[in-house]
Amino acid sequence: MQARVKICGITQAEDAVVAAEAGADAIGLVFYDPSPRAVTIAQAQQVVQALPPFVTTVGLFVNAERERIEAVLQQVSLDLLQFHGAETPAFCEAFQRPWMKAIRMKPDVDLQQEAERYSHAAALLVDAYQAGVPGGTGETFDWARIPSQLSKPLVLAGGLTVDNVQQAVTQVKPWAVDVSGGVEQSKGFKSHSKVAQFIENAKRVPFE
């Protein structure tokens, strides 16, 4: 198999279409106002409407109120929810959508324990830990901390770039990789050449 690729932090339709044409399996829309990559409902609708079929749309939330998530779901066609805060399993399960839980790799994190806690998640997304920053840090972490056998599909994030994604896939063998800042020309705007090269590099590594 080969790793799937999610391009996160998409803010405009053009970038989404470029990612899809380059082979992205999913795109991420950030519904977290403090993020420089946050989108409005109108922006998200434009992005989703521009996408060709068979590209998964992912909505990212950080400790959002339930009403906020429901309002987004009523107006934006999202296939998967990504929770990046301190959401409980019960909260994550409340929206009748597949979902994945982001786990920031603090020094004491036990990923297998988190997989058991979030047992209904479609996947765990592992990201670098930086105090006070829920994601998009641009930092990597020690990939050796990830168990070789995990009871959930693993999505690897955190500081991935064109230059290191091939090594990351070779070492970790994740179900998917997730990139945002590593393929940008400026915050919220993708470099089309980096997007294409990242996807090519990520999918170049076959593994069992």
Question: What this model shows, in words?
Answer:
This protein has 208 residues and is α/β, with parallel strands linked by helices. Helices cover 29% and strands 20% of the residues. The chain is built from 7 helices and 10 strands. Strand 7, helix 6 and strand 8 form a beta-alpha-beta unit. The longest helix is centred in the C-terminal third of the chain and has 12 residues. The chain starts with a strand and ends in a 5-residue tail after the last helix.
Give the number of domains. 1
Which CATH class is shown?
Alpha Beta
- Summed up, the helix count is 7
* Adjacency order of strands in the biggest sheet: 1-2-3-4-5-6-7-8
Unreliable runs: none
Mean pLDDT: 94
Number of strands: 10
Helix/strand/pairing class, anyone?
alpha/beta
CATH architecture: Alpha-Beta Barrel
Instruction: Spell out the helices and strands N to C.
Output: EHEHEHEHEHEEHEEEH
Quaternary state of the chains: single chain
Q: CATH superfamily name?
A: Aldolase class I
Please give the largest β-sheet: 8 strands, parallel, barrel
State which percent range the strand residues make up.
15-25%
Principal-axes shape call: globular
CATH topology: TIM Barrel
Distance between the termini: 6 Å
- The gyration radius over C-alpha positions equals 16 Å
